[in-house]
## 1
Amino acid sequence: LVPQTKTGIALLYDEVSENAYDIRLKLTKEVLTIQKQDVVCVSGSDHSANHRTVKLRRQPVGGLGLSIKGGAEHKVPVVISKIFKDQAADQTGMLFIGDAIIQVNGINVESATHEEVVHLLRNAGDEVTITVQYLREAPSFLKLPLGSPGPSSDHSSGASSPLFDSGLHLNGNSTNTAPSSPSSPIANEPKYEKRWLDALSVPLSMARISRYKTGTDKLRSNAFEVLALDGVSTGILQLYTAQESADWLRAISTNISDLTLQNMKMANKCCSPSDQVIHMGWVNERLEGTDSSQLYKFKFLALKGSSFYIFSTPPVSTLDWVRAEKIYNLCDVIFKIHKLWLADDCWLQANLYLGIHQDYDFEDQRPYCFSVLVGHGKSHYFNVELGNELAVWEKSFQRAIFLEVQRTGSKTYVCSWQGDTLCFTVDFALGFTCFDSKTKNVLWRFKFSQLKGSSDDGKTRVKLLFQNLDTKQIETKELEFQDLTAVLHCIHSFIAAKVASVDPVFMDSQSIARKYMYSN
């Protein structure tokens, strides 16, 4: 993975006010920074850059040289929306598009309507003193240009509405017919510039991305949120096009994955070769509510050594590994892809390959879902945000399970048949062996290749169908287990690992998620 660096303009959406604000995104290898525009003092004595008081001389041609938008009736201050080049406002060097007007000739206008401010400015005489403060979160419906000062050819005042500019480059009620001296900056006056300033930095190590509206299965349109390990959120980042949104998601996801890889390498330095972290990352787990409503919760999964871990927060130190919500042995679980929004034949292939005919009544709207089937017929149902994450989880589970099978070599389960207590062993080298638990006498033994089918009652009893190599006849062996699903999962894992060791290309060709990713 090559870490991405990127900058671009986006909107920050406020769900409470339902307004969106212009922001700039800056992505580095380790941090996503949100920048907001502000006016800063770059030289001279710094009167508070927050409030600037500027004197304007109304000119016979061009008036005050600016236009305004907004007003209290729309729950926004009146802001400067245009500054005309080389006219009064521009010549001061102290006014910017996006400045909110606080006072006009000492009169506070913070809660004034659009028309009131227009009237005040037009009747304020030849010399107008205005106090302004840059509005860092100007709602996007004001449609303010990001550049400043903005060259504009539109000199019409238009209608007085917050969505139209009221032009104050007109003469107003000027009594002075002689050309007035320009409103120019004085030598010792402070100089101001409009700049993008860092407002929030979100570290990407162990961060997570969310594309869904909280508590729903509804995908946000061209929008997402990035949450840091400590829960700090970027807020909802709205991009202008689907392509931009996809590019940003890919870039941020790449950097998170790269940092996760570094964290894994650090963790693995402290672990024995048989207890290495193979993969870890954030997913959404679906929780079944009492009213059967679907609710997702962020969970952090890890494949490490012989175990599959489910955490509510990522393990940061070595001690954290013991506080997982759930820990399962990898030989006892099965990874199953549920949903890719693929054509029906791929569904069929997935079911055939996985050999699991469990009926799930999932009317889920989320793509990129997988489940991990665990003992006693239970399962965990997960969803990831991006398709490539699904492919990585599929490959990682496969690898982790195969390594665990090869390390373990064999697993023995206590079982019974017709009142006798027996032992059933699945062995990577030898296949299946059944022996008497007391006398240790071997009752029967078959290779993996001899298993031709199986059926079970869904509770404790299983029938295994083996082909006798000499007679070619099918022999049926029946056994009863306390945790039948764990045994069936173990058989599945050992056979899959055996196939992979003999023919890895075949296993790769069966990868549902990767096949989908490459075709896209």
Note: Residues 24 and 108 are 31 Å apart (CA to CA).
## 2
Amino acid sequence: MVRRVAVIGAGVGGLASVKCCLDEGLEPTCFERSEDIGGVWRYTDSTDSGRVSVYRSVITNTSKEMSCFSDFPCPEDFPSYLPHGLVLEYLRMYARHFDLLRHISFKTTALSVKKRPDFATSGQWEVITETNGIQESHIFDAVMVCTGHYQEPYLPLASFPGIDTHFKGQYLHSRDYKDAEAFQGKRVLVVGIGNTGGDLSVELSRVAAKVFLSARSSTWVFSRVSNHGFPLDMVHTTRFNHFLEWLLPSALTKRIKFRRFNSWFNHANYGLASTKSSNFKIIVNEELPFCLLSGTIVLKPKVKEFTETSVVFEDGTTEENIDVVLFATGYTFSFSFLEESVRSLFDDNRSLYKCVFPPQLEKPTLAIIGLVQLTGSVMVGSEMQARWVTGIFAGWNKLPATSRMMADVLKKKPTVKRNPSERENLKMSFISYTDEIASCAGIKPSVLQLFLVDPRLALAIFFGPCTPYQYRLVGRGKWSGARDAILTQWQRTLKPLRNRVVDDSSDSSSGWLWICLLALPVALTAGFLLSK
């Protein structure tokens, strides 16, 4: 019987794990090597500590309603997209509300996590920690590793001939970037066009003499502001859209997607992406297209090599007098504190059962939380994982046999190993993954059943945004406020914008009623098909 649980890391995943342990009557102890909670969301000017944190200007790519914990909505006066300071404030509110801080040991580093000699029967772990130079050994029944993606910068210098032998300028990884002040008047090359590369290129374009952005793959650019000014993810991440993707032929779905991708601007004209692309990534950036249009950012292909002062690209073009190269090439994870026999069981999250459990372990008492790439909020995915895992630790949920878990892993594991800068292509569908984990945990809502007992709520769930409150309607951890949170999510979205009220007497309520009535048969059919 699992009782004592070690939680490593007090970021988003760690806080959710501590809370879920408490919900299940377990005894968590969280080890956090820094002096505070927040993980990467706790901004710091310094990079000396080795701790990864966000850059000063970062703003979330997912909206507050789609990113919050499932039983703790963001305050209604918070904007839809949050700067890092408000994310940290929200995490502090969450920790205070559920009294999590007393379970966290700060300035305590987990040095090693090893299986006990009797692990095959007990499933226990020995965790050695260090606080102020003093080491201590602990015995735990289970361990939840919550250190996330962003551990070690991925800097593939070998893929860029001349960068460390000929190039006389400066180069750095995006982990070491905090603001644009040091780049005033310089010619900068940014390598990598993920969300970070796009953000930093835009910010640098305001102060640098010129910014060049090197992209090796097709990239579709979205704005956070979607139809009628609503948040992008609240408009598009719906069960109705998910159902259509499942229902329609893949070729037609692809055509519809590309048409929507190009509805803002023609990406081929900007050299970003083509509808013929088979491998592509999606980033969120409102300003990048204008910077390309105004010439403050110049898009370039993959780098071929560096000389003393210039960079040569694969298309044969050269840009001279490059002062700084900024690598936005992602991160790797190592879990160096895990013993080698355990660490060797997985090389990425797809080697884990449901991206959480190493399936080869004799006892399922080690869980990796937050090591998942989703098309939506990782915060929601991490909490869902923690709820499922702690239910297993407490004996409410069960894992299948090792052979079945291994078969599931092999079926889903990509045939080609990707480097960290290409992991964007391996993102999993937000709704597919959260529904899958929710089904395992017994907390997935049935749209069809809801239509029979609460049609208004069912319509909001099926046609509206797939907000995390949906996973608090049924099962263990059911929250009495979930229904109201779902029905008022649009009000909380609009509340921060109501600082200047204008008269809009148009009444669209009757139109919305007709839309709902016409859509009811579609929703009922979808609920029936998806429940089979």
Note: The chain is about 30% helix and 15% strand.
## 3
Amino acid sequence: MKSFTLCTILIFLVALFGFESVLVVAGLNYGNALDKSLMFFEAQRSGKLPSDQRVKWRGDSGLTDGLLQGVNLVGGYYDAGDHVKFGLPMAFSVTMLSWGAIDFEKEIASLNQLGHVLDTIKWGTDYFIKAHTQPNILWGQVGDGDSDHYCWERAEDMTTSRTAYKIDPEHPGSDLAGETAAAMAAASIAFKQYNSTYSNILLVHAKQLFSFADKFRGRYDNSITSAHQFYASGTSSYSDELLWAAVWLYRATGEEFYLKYAVDNAVSFGGTGWAVDEFSWDNKYAGLQILLSKVLMEGNGKAYTPTLKQYQAKADFFACACLQKNNGYNVDMTPGGLLYVREWNNLQYASSAAFLLAVYSDYLTAGNADIKCPDAQIKPQDLIKFAQSQANYIIGENPKSMSYLVGVGTSYPTHVHHRGSSIASTSVLPSKVGCVQGFENWYHRIEANPNVLYGGLVGGPDKNDNFNDQRDNYEQTEPTISGTSPLVGLFAKLQGVMKNSGPPSYPKESPTSYHTTPTTS
């Protein structure tokens, strides 16, 4: 009888307000999802953990990173379910976190999460400052993917190679240096009003890194060859990162030099030529096209207006393709309504696309503009509604009724492909778990992971919305920092739209308490 009554109430609320409006009743709370997303980054921390670490099953790790090369590379983030610190996706993740903190600062602050967000960004930028040892030298990776993947062990027990790899004038990496420049520039904006000294430090590094990326051109995975198998610079090579970095530096400084760079190189670097249907750690075109559309709609194009209009035409292509209004040239979708770009770890593409549509919706609203797609006229609210549909799918509104964000909702993956999550913590099992022992005793266990990896966005379902929650199914069950990072801004925006102001799980002091110099790990 109680179940019948509850169902009757839910049906009534859906009829009265629409499904999205009763998501809070079903427990799908954007504020809670944002909080959990930030906790994932704490679980991915490398280095000496701070006293306010919330993920207690993690411990200090990687404390000698860079030692053999004579440089301090302690800190930063582990990439996914492994313990390699890959520079390119880490930098992209920090850029996305910073973008969310800039555009949705008020929404994040309303959840009392701004301190946590800035902490999360700073853990990455402190590491980048260490890694950028000279104007034209950037350490871009610690650890080796091959040797790391042969072992299944906790970060605290690591026995695998911690070799560090760098780019320099003789071994360039314009994509890696460009993305790191973008991350530093975006972070400088996020910190500007809270810690101007630190913001200025980040901007100095961003300018140097952009100069390095532009002057000494080349693909980073030709220099750091061990990255090629895991994070190869794709068909766009480094051209998109050079434009991306320039656009972020323009936003951070207002200096015309950087806007002119994006305009002068629009054709040769593909900025006005590439019409894309994805946005990711590898392909930045849609992101930079939307940022330059913002410049245009704010009336700051001046002599560059014709080229900026071409950029906006490509931004509109991306939006139309996502909303299935692009005369057949659309992003594929699953029957359940999820954008489908890649078989391997597809949800990272859905999360980044949803974030882009959310920010573009705001830019169009501010510019009092619509999008004329081939199949329909799209309004800003259509973009945010679609972005919300992707977020809702991620946290449970899907054919499996499963949240793919670990720890959010009542049903989520419990056999996540993640070393630390799948092995008992050092506080429970103090003895060392060896490389092979981890596979034998933990990797192949039928039982759920002993440690809940809150906020990890797993790879997600296949093109038919099917999902197999098994630890060895890494294409679907492995989370990445580049997948979760766009969700912080997205959930903040949706929280503002829905006015879902539930109490945050973890209060944080004011972000004005930041140190004026980078912390050391």
Note: Strands lie at 85-86, 138-142, 164-167, 332-333, 339-340, 371-372, 377-378.
## 4
Amino acid sequence: PPPAPCCHDVARALPAAAAVGRREGKAASPPPLSSQSPFSRAGGGALAMATSTTGSTLLQPLSNAVRLPIDQVNFVVCQLFALLAAIWFRTYLHSSKTSSFIRHVVATLLGLYLALFCFGWYALHFVVQSGISYYIMIIIGVENMHKYCFVFALGYLTMCQITRVYIFDYGQYSADFSGPMMIITQKITSLAYEIHDGMFRKEEELTPSQRCLAVRRMPSLLEYLSYNCNFMGILAGPLCSYKDYITFIEGRSYQLTQSEANGKEDVKYEQTDPSPNIAVTQKLLICGLSLLFHMTVTKTLPVEYNIDDNFRATVSLPMRIIYLYVSLMAARPKYYFAWTLADAINNAAGFGFRGYDKNGASRWDLISNLRIQHIEFSTSFKMFLDNWNIQTALWLKRVCYERASFSPTIQTFILSAIWHGVYPGYYLTFLTGVLMTLAARAMRNNIRHHFVESPPVKLCYDVITWIATQVAISYTVVPFVLLSVKPSFMFYSSWYFCLHIACILVLLILPLKRTQKGSIEQESIKPSWPKKLEEEENVLGQNNYSTTNNSFNQKQEITCRYPALKQ
């Protein structure tokens, strides 16, 4: 057996990894699964300085000064400008002071300006994709419009991704225009399904979440463009439901229900205008820490070092496992920065309020995209996915998983791979993810209940499952980072495909419980629906949560505000 890792292993591995990072001019690459952050193709180091941009070069001196590629500088500066614009928007264009029309126009024009600044003429793709999708909705009709919009939007996105990858520069890590298009594609397809649900399907055919999100009238062209291209979310999202966005723009007061401690009575009251200042400040602090970590630590731990011949030949197996985990963990702060900043921008504009908890504290996580603590300490594959890129997970659930007629898990992973892009590594990651998800589900359903009675045993079980989850996640997403087939297979072969084989053996040996159709994974950020409807929705895998995640299994304390909307 290989020797245990020691200080000499660590001393040898980390400087060598840093050398590889400097030699290749790359930072540690993106972590797992759902990732549409503009930094998902962001490099670092000297090579990245040469990255070109189709957007403005006005900030080139700043790019040279901070030694970051111009496209990344444009993105960060535009997001900071959007943050200031959001504060101005909430203060001077508040719904009580101006009309919804003006708010729609200003939000759309500012969004298109930021897109033009970052991506130049490529920003026209955003308008073209949105415009053609709107035309399809109008001429096709509500019965089949969701299918046509889905095929067109995803096809248009894929065409742009193929063009970017295979015509311009394969493997170029830069903040490119396909990132915002991924978010717009989510919005186009989500709204098409919501209109189909609200204007064609019968009420009894809808799930509780579909009933809450259903749109009862066709949006105007201005509303549609504002939803897709507003300045708060055009660069980094996150995805939000059309009803939530329109409610925010029109300034409708929320009818909230707060459960009392005994759970027997509800106190109803009108929400006026809660302040987002504390939430925004906290999120900006997280952004600062994440950016600092990315600028100082991430570049010394390149993921590519996992397939370095010298590293594999000289470092012990335990040390290779540790470095695999550390290198992928070090890549995540760039996503924490981009998504948390995007969330703060929406909150600063007054968007993202989700009601009050039982203590009366305001909650600004309606469209939050991640929960850092539960990502880093996840004890199951599912728990990681539930807290990573939350809004994309909800989109996959709503447009694919709960509507699939067969193999919903497989179809959902395939859709996720297509949506992410055309690199072969994406497909290797998501196909591996299917095996990991099914095997993890089978193990937890058959084994976990034996270890939850005794607290000490449960603690040991959680520690073991945390280690297994972090290794499995890192193992799964390496092809997502390496992009190409050859280095991906080089990595998996160096591990002798051990986790693939283990997953297949688990699926062959352990029975996989068949879940009821329509019983799906609990939404980390739910649409707020009435208690009665909430109790009707069964969630697949609700028993799969570790008790360390109990806070997310607690009953939501806000009711659906949508019945008051006459969409």
Note: The beta strands are 255-259, 266-270.
